Each structure stands twice: as C-alpha cells, then as structure tokens.
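Table 4 source record.
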Amino acid sequence: LEDNVKIEHIANFFVDHIKNDNLGRIATAHMAYADSDGLYSNICIELAKLHSIAVDFPKTGVPAEFPKEFSPEKYPHFMEKDPTKSYDSQKILGQIYDRLPNNINDRSAAIYGNGFDPSLLLEGYEQYVENAFVDFEDYYADLCDIMESYQIYDEAEIISGYVGQFSAYDYQNRHEKNGDIQARLCKEVTLLIDYYHDLFWDEFGDDTREIEFKHMQKASAWYYVAYEGYKKYYDQEDTFLSFPWVVVDIICQIKRNINQS
C-alpha cells in the first residue's frame, strides 16, 4: 500500500477473503480424486498446488481459483456425501471406515478398547518417564485448547480430522463452511503433531534422526505415560492416547524388532 492502512482496506480484504477462500473445496476435491484417480494423478497434483496457494491466501491476498471442472462428480462413501453421488471405495480409507462402528462414541470405545501393550515397554524406559509426564501434560493442554476452540471433545475425531458433526458454535456467523473448518482443524492438529515430534528429538540433538535404542526407550516412556502412567498417578481415566503416536515411526520400529526376535 502507498498510504497507511485504513478501515476500508481491512473491510475490503475481509470481504475478498470470504468471497475467494476456497481452501475447504480444494481439500475436499483432493481427497475425492486421491481415492478415485490416485494421489499422484495430474488433477491431484494441481489441487495440491492450489491448496498451497489457498493456505497462504490470508497472508498474501492471492486467491486460489477453483475451476468448476475440478469439482468431483462422485465421492468415496467414507466422505459421507449425498448417497446419489457416492461410490463404494475399496481403498484403505474406505476399508478403515467400514470397520468402524456407526456411532462415533462406539468408535472411540473401539479405539480405546485395544488396550495397553506391555511389549512396547523396553528395558530402561523408566529413565525417561519423568520428562515424559511433563511433555504429556503440555500435549494434553494444547490438545484441549484445540478441542475447546472447535467444541469437539472426541480425541479420535480431532486427530483423524473426520468430524461427525461440527457444532453450530457460531461458526455460521464466521461465514465458514464445514469443509473450511475441517481444513483449518487438520492444519492445527498437524502443526501440533509436528511440534511434539520435533520436541521428542530435541533432547538428543541429532539432526540425522536415525532411530537408536535410546530413542525407542524414550518412545516407550511416552507410550507408558499415555496408556498407563497418567491414569495411575493422577487417578483419572481421561487421557490422550494419541500422544506417543506423534513418533509413530519409532513405536513401529519397536514392534518390528519384537516381531523379528
């Protein structure tokens, strides 16, 4: 701008943002085409480029134009669109969706009911438990903040991004569609997971991030705190089981080592 920012500049930007914010539509279309055409199809690559532009739109003011021909004609059934425009997806997301109970509360119970796997606790993990409690409490608070912001109180919905129903919670007054809210929610959760993934590695000061036994011991401690320690030491059932899975690569390595031995 050649002069100072004025109220009319802010008003014009706000209106322009409402008219041109296509983030939700782009994310929805990308998910649909990724299932039907493949993640590396030309249309998915184009949509990924548009998504990057759309994410930066509030900062740059450059809108992502969403061509009408990019609107999917059919959607995989797990996206829960109009049944007349849906098809039965056999891809992995469709298979996972079909295995879940219909009721979202039953879904969470099914996830939590998998139980604690003591084989994931490696010898010597105890040395990392004290700090794991500190990190878990921070993670707990941060995830609670996100839940409160979106008025979604189911961990499975928050982490997966598949929300059964967004609360009316005055989001309509913000002129946002469910797809836009979902995209923002997924971005916030991704940033949260990335932050704690980096936090896990900061203690070791190793840029290569090649998994060693000490890393697996610490991951075991995170797993213990989330699944058993928090409930035991704080005498409450509420916990966030997603905490150790921010380092899913290390947890999986532990399990692979167990299976190989």
